[in-house]
Design a protein that fits this description.
Oligomer: single chain
Low-confidence stretches: 84-90
Number of helices: 0
Mean pLDDT: 82
Number of strands: 6
Radius of gyration: 12 Å
Helix content: under 10%
Distance between the termini: 31 Å
Strand order of the largest sheet: 1-2-3-6-5-4
């Protein structure tokens, strides 16, 4: 398999929330791996996840502005453009 990532991802196995500011309730997810520029998450229903959103890591003060890059079943690959200072930031 050809590796296309600029930076390698580190196995994370954390939980988080997909914050959809204008889309209703937050969506629970598992963060499988994470790098400076992206992540791979697991969700129960990928159809509920918008193209752009905030990803808040549970038990941490970290919030990322993310965009979907690919979907494979319940797994979603993300591009994390920048870290946000709080969950009210516009994705």
């Amino acid at each position: 398999m050809l590796e296309r990532r600029v930076r390698p991802r580190a196995l994370t196995l954390k939980t988080g929330k997909i914050v959809c500011r204008n889309e209703g309730a937050d969506i629970d997810c598992a963060i499988l791996d994470l790098s400076d520029g992206g992540a791979r998450i697991l969700v129960s229903d990928p159809a509920e996840v918008p193209q752009k959103f905030l990803l808040k890591i549970d038990r941490a003060q970290t919030v990322y502005v993310c965009e979907r890059v690919w979907t494979d079943g319940n797994r979603i690959g993300l591009s994390c453009h920048s870290a946000a200072s709080n969950a009210q930031s516009e994705p």
